[in-house]
Amino acid sequence: MHTRRLVKRSILGSRVYAPSPTGDGAPVTGVVQAVKQENRDASAAGPRRSVYTVLMQDGSLKEFTEEEIAAGSNHTATKGPLKSSLKQSSSNGVSDGHKLDGGSRSPEAVDEQRPVDGKRVSRDPDTRSVSLLEQKRKVVSSSIDVPHARRSEEEVDMDKVTAAMVLTSLSTSPLVRSPPVKVSEGLSGSWKDNGSAGPFTPSSNSSSGGYWSWSAPSDQSNPSTPSPPLSADSFKPFRVPGVGGVGSNPTGAEDPSLDEQDGSSLLFDEPIPRKRKNSMKVMFKCLWKNCGKVLSTTAGIQRHIRTIHLGRNCDSDCSDGEEDFYYTEIKLNTDSVADGLSSLSPVSSSVLSPPPPPPSPLPPLSHQPDSHRSPHPSDSKEPHASGTTPLSRSAPSALYLIHADHAYQATAPVSIPSSSSNSSSTSFTPSNSSSFSISWQSPPVTFTGNTVSPTQTQGFGEQRSQTIAVLSSPPRATTALSRKVRGEGKKCRKVYGMENRDMWCTACRWKKACQRFTD
DNA sequence: CCTGCCGGGAT
DNA sequence: ATCCCGGCAGG
């Protein structure tokens, strides 16, 4: 169908068969590195001869004419190998090439070539997935605005290289040991997406009986392959409708701030701000007894509560806001979501603790420091604590935060398995604290932490400490947080007005700290 | 000023 | 325990 067009494309990077340089007749494979026209003055009539510089398997460079290469192959169609194995140099061509390879060539031909860095990367799984990732990414970017046709080969390959580096380091980073889900934030993005619009509807059965009953859309992406990171711009819109759509939901004020957090691109010199570093995922958990359903949108959880627990069938428009009482907001650190999921029990904290050997002072840099958590006052529950970091030593890596909107409804104690590899602040003295209990708002939170060496890692630990500060208030800091900081968000009084005082939460009625609209 | 909410009193 | 409110403090 498009064969004609394919021919026109550059074949750089294509795998071709060529006559063996030793002349023994056995065809060898190589990768086209360059092509030049032999007779540049060729008129439209005359066939032009091209000379291809091919990187052979043994690393040597050879030049072949088109005919030579064609002759070297005996299992391609009439038009010659170049045409069938063409890999268009940029963007979508990559996937095309891959498809073809997979179809007709020997298994080893499947592994992708990286044309410019010259050396072939061996076919280890990582490399493979890197290729896939690149491919997908290319597709994405080409479908957006990148004028792919104009990109030079070097640019393209720089992208590949950087992507490879990023992915490689991701896949080797200590945290990435369990499900591949957490590697990709893109996926977390799609949770959101699905939550608001997709198949991810709050079903009536809370069969899982447990906490995490989302259905990840992993069926469409190869589970063993990290899905491509969505570019920040494509990711952003997903969040907004999910949360913003619901009128007076408690997170309304918060998510914007998250969005503001510009992922100042730390992916080396990535040209595009590729991936929001936002590793915080907000979920909403039903607090109804024995339910514990977790959904990703307020709308979803509200509907769940309304229909399942409150037994109302009407739509959200006849809601009186009562659902708000029965769910809470949970922040998940998607970096470690899987850890948190796989082991909610504190027991395994030691098992969980990341393997990175102490000797290496700095962790793989590319492992995204999930900074981005804003110091925005409205975002943190205990700003005092965020200033003082007495707790930072026990910064958990498997970290999920209870945002506790309606804490007084909370039921079970929440235990946070913690395994920390580093901590930031110099202000504390490393002690051997292992477990303590803190009471913050109403629900008791049991926190078990492992103290590890106080190696300082800037961005990382800082962020962690901040996050943990949000989570808990250390017993000793009581003087500092004598008074809870004034809430920014709407409170019952504002929302319902004096005339509807009976709709306020009890705390508000009693002039206590509002428990419905915490912020 | 308004508003959130702590401390403490009344029941 | 529940309810209420004076008064402080942040905005």
Automatic annotation (TrEMBL):
Q: Which GO terms describe its molecular function?
A: DNA-binding transcription factor activity; RNA polymerase II cis-regulatory region sequence-specific DNA binding; zinc ion binding
Point to the regions of Polar residues compositional bias. 85-94, 440-467
Give the species this sequence originates from: Crenichthys baileyi
Question: Can you say where in the cell this protein is located?
Answer: Nucleus
Q: Which Pfam families match?
A: DUF4772
Gene Ontology cellular component annotations, sorted alphabetically: nucleus
Protein keywords: DNA-binding, Metal-binding, Nucleus, Transcription, Transcription regulation, Zinc, Zinc-finger
- The domain of life is Eukaryota
Any one biological process term the GO annotation gives: regulation of transcription by RNA polymerase II
The record's listing under InterPro entries reads: CR1/CR2-DNA-binding_regulator, DUF4772, Znf_C2H2_type
Compositionally biased spans, kind Pro residues: 353-366
Q: Which residues form the C2H2-type domain?
A: 284-314
Q: Basic and acidic residues bias: where?
A: 111-127, 369-384
Bias (Low complexity) occurs at 196-218, 343-352, 415-439
Protein's recorded name: C2H2-type domain-containing protein
* Positions of region (Disordered): 72-157, 174-272, 343-393, 414-467
